[in-house]
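Sequence only, no structure available. Ideas?
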Amino acid sequence: MFKKRLVVFVSLVLVGMLAVACGQKEETITYEDGSTYVGVVKDGKANGEGTWSNEDGGKYVGGFKDDLFEGKGSLTWGLGYRYNEKYEGDFVAGKYNGQGTWSNADGETYVGGFKDDVFDGEGTFTSVTGDVYVGGFKDGMFDGKGVQTFADGVSKYEGDFVGNMFSGQGTFTYAIGGNYTGSWEYSMYNGQGTLTNFDGSVQKGIWENNKLVTPE
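Reply:
I predicted one. C-alpha cells follow.
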C-alpha cells in the first residue's frame, strides 16, 4: 500500500512539474461582463484548456485561444442569450465551426456540420414535432440534396431543397397513399411532373402552383 501511494505521489509531482515547465498555470480571469474563466492563462488571456461561466448559468468547458472558444468544447447557454441552447463539438474563433451536436430548449436537435454558428454542410435535424431532415444545409437552412420524413413516419420528401423549401427535382410520398414525382418550386408542384393519386389514377404534365395546367 505504501509503495502504491508513493507511486501516485511521484506521478502527481511529475505532472505538476511538467505543467510548470510548459508554462501552463491555472488562473482565474474575470471579464467586464461578469463572466469568469478558470484555466490555462498565457499572455494575460485564456489560452489552453479551461472553463468559462457566467451569472446566467452559461458554461463552457474546453479549449481556448486568446479568450475565445477554440478546438473541442462543450457549451451550455443559460437564461440569457440563446436560452438553454447546448452545443458540443468544434469551435473556431469563438463560434461553432466544424462538426458538432446542438439542441435547444424547445427540443430541437441537430448533428452535423457548422459554419459560423449555423448549420452548414451535411447533417440531421429533428424538429420539436418529430419531423426529421437528413441532407445538405446552407446558412442554417435545408439546402441541396436531402430527405425530410414527417412525424407520421410515412409522409416523406426526397430530392432538392433551397432555403428550407422543396425546389428542383423530387418525390413526395403521401401518408394516405400516392406520390408526386417531378419539378418543384416554393414547395409546390411547378414544371413537369406526375401525380399518382391514392386511388391509382395518374395526372401527368406541366404544373403551376400545384395545378395541372398542361395535361399530357
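The helical segments are 2-21.
Hope that gets you unstuck.
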